[in-house]
Write a structure and sequence with these properties.
Elements: H1 2-15, H2 21-36, H3 40-45, H4 49-56, H5 59-75, H6 79-93, E1 96-97, E2 102-103, E3 108-109, E4 116-117, E5 120-121, E6 126-127, E7 132-134, E8 149-150, E9 155-156, E10 161-163, E11 167-168, E12 173-174, E13 179-180, E14 188-193, E15 196-201
Parallel strand pairs: 1-4, 2-5, 3-6, 4-7, 5-8, 6-9, 7-10, 8-11, 9-12, 10-13, 12-14
Antiparallel strand pairs: 14-15
Helix pairs in contact: 2-4, 2-5, 5-6
């Protein structure tokens, strides 16, 4: 499990070119595009250069850019500098994304404050306010082998919690206030009612 997870993470970082400035910029551009096309109203307004620059200056995209720089530095072996950028992100934007984390392009932080992420995710990840995705308390600052692995197009609702080496399949929505403690198959909707988790396929 741990060796396989580490192999997948290395492959993802290579695929998305996370270790190069060119790759970082390409990922940031997809983050911006996702932000500008997240609703019909934004789509109708178009994706002009002016709108891209304006969007880039928003906190939710600035903190993603800082994370991607810290991740690149971590991959290159500049661990202390990578941690500095991560701590700066926490101080300024109140969001904690570890430099080890591998997040694919097109990420969207709807409300950055309170978000904690330490793990791996594919393309088009969506994190709402106070969402937590990390290793368990004994390995929180350790290797990603103890952290969650999320597929593509995963949405983590506000105050939702995913802890430990959990596999979450692609195209899955995890509702708010859910505390996930088991693997989830792709194309699922996870909701919580009165501290009970129901996992049902989405049609």
């Amino acid at each position: 499990m741990s060796d396989m997870g580490q192999s997948v993470r290395s492959e993802s970082c290579h695929t998305y070119c996370h270790s190069t400035l060119k790759g970082v910029w390409a990922n940031v551009q997809e983050d911006i595009l996702r932000h500008l096309t997240n609703c019909p109203e934004n789509i109708a307004r178009g994706v002009s250069t002016k709108r891209k620059i304006s969007a880039f200056m928003r906190p939710e995209l600035l903190c993603l850019c800082i994370y991607r720089l810290s991740h690149m530095l971590h991959l290159r072996g500049w661990v202390r500098l990578a941690k500095f950028f991560a701590r700066f992100n926490l101080l300024v934007h109140k969001v904690s994304i570890s430099p080890q984390s591998c997040i694919g392009p097109g990420c969207r932080l709807s409300h950055p404050p309170g978000v904690i992420f330490h793990g791996q995710a594919g393309r088009s990840l969506t994190l709402f306010s106070m969402a937590v995705c990390c290793a368990d308390e004994f390995h929180h600052h350790g290797d990603l082998q103890f952290a969650p692995v999320l597929g593509d197009n995963v949405q983590l609702g506000g105050h939702a919690v995913v802890i430990g080496p959990i596999q979450v399949g692609s195209d899955t929505k995890i509702s708010y206030l859910v505390k996930l403690a088991e693997n989830v198959s792709p194309n699922s909707l996870v909701v919580s009612r009165a501290m009970h988790i129901n996992i049902s396929p989405r049609e």
